[in-house]
Amino acid sequence: MKRLIVLAALFVLLPAAFAQAAPTVAQITHSEFQAVNASGEQTYNATEKVILEGILLNNPADMLDPTPDETITQLFNISGQWQIFFQGEGDDHAGTAVWLGQLYNNLPWVALDGGYTNDEFVSELSRLNAAQFSPGDRIRVTGYFLSYNGKLNINEQHNKNPDHDFTIELIERGVGLPRPEVVTLDDLKDVDDEFIFDPARQTGGEYHQVRLIKIQNVSFADAKDWGPHGELVITDGVKTLTVKLGRGNGIYAGSNNLTEPFDVIGIMDQESTNLTDGYRLYVMNYDGNGSVLASREHRRADKPGDLNLDGVVDYDDFDTFLEDWFNK
Fold first, then answer.
1. What is the set of domains in the chain, with CATH numbers?
2. 32: phi > 0 → left, psi -120 to 50 → alpha, else beta; which?
3. Which one, of 95, 88, 117, lies nearest residue 104 by Cα?
4. Which tens digit of pLDDT belongs to each residue from 129-139?
5. C-alpha 300, offset from chain centre
6. How far apart are CA 88 and CA 93, in angstroms?
7. How many CB atoms lie within 10 A of CB 91?
8. CA-based nearest residue to 193, from 233, 245, 148
9. What are the residue ranges of helices labelled H in 20-117?
10. Regions of the chain with pLDDT less than 50
11. Going by DSSP bridges, is the β-strand pair 167-172/95-101 parallel, antiparallel, or unpaired?
């Protein structure tokens, strides 16, 4: 009888013993999350998952193409992708990317059945977009993470199992986009036109990474790649910087009507295999204004109150407000 009791107890305890422990998680700042060492490697490892809050900076569809295609078999071709950037507030001078991909199984280290079908990926997009958030909303993101080319990103760690889903919560709608910080190429590049890398993240590209910034009075050194996902080069006459274009509906062949000099407003990004360079300005969309390369919402954030986007805050903006109000 005693033996039977012991065996019964073991059957009760075994499931608990083999149950997977819940992942560790903590709410931290973007600055803590994006900390790097002298080689540019991410150093955050205190928990397996993180909770971050901040202001959403972009519409995901203006950055990457989410259209799924499960027939793609090319190595490293993820097919549909989804990504947002959101930045910290107050003293939390940093920001983070959140990324989702479809065909993880086109990565050589992922199992052949490790990607989403088209229907599964559409379902994931619907889940993420259920909060109906917009640029300027305050959001909370909870999830696992991986480093990629100089940033620590919240993602699924290339694992489509539901236990690796990240979540996005809408904390407050319409808080407003942060005003773009004015940054010069001298703030980003040294006298040899090489990127300034500061592991303390107090200067250079690291300081401005995944933040909304504005660079004034530049011209194109190379604009031949203008178009969705194109890469351009701007210059102040001495130093240069890559501008990565998104896929907003204002970016298409022939829509470049910018006169020189012009300003650029975008999000400071990094794509670097050696982790200490490769900073670029990511511009999601262009509204055709002819003087500022920026999306409409980023241009409006630059001059609060400039409702008609003519570069001046005056009575004409009040007329625009009244017109919008009475047409609702």
1. 23-172 (2.40.50.140), 181-307 (2.40.50.140)
2. alpha
3. 117
4. 888 899 999 99
5. 19
6. 6
7. 7
8. 233
9. 30-33
10. 1-18, 307-308, 310, 312, 314-328
11. unpaired
Cβ-Cβ contacts under 8 Å for 297 (sequence gap 6 or more): 135, 136, 177
Cis peptide bond prior to 261, omega within 30° of 0? yes
Nearest CA to 132 out of 168, 96, 176 is that of 168
Asked if residues 131 and 170 have their Cβ atoms less than 8 Å apart, the reply is: yes
Name the token pair of 136: 């300027």
- Please tell me the distance from the alpha carbon of residue 65 to that of residue 83, in angstroms, as a whole number: 9
What single-letter amino acid sits at 315?
A: Y
Alpha carbon distance 328, 325 (integer Å): 6
Tell which residue, 306, 328, 304, has the closest CA to residue 317: 306
The type of residue at 271 is E
Query: Which tokens is 63 given?
Result: 């950055």
Secondary structure (3-state) at 106 = helix
What is the reported pTM? 0.88
Residue with tokens 């989804």: 82
DSSP-assigned beta bridge partners for residue 113: none
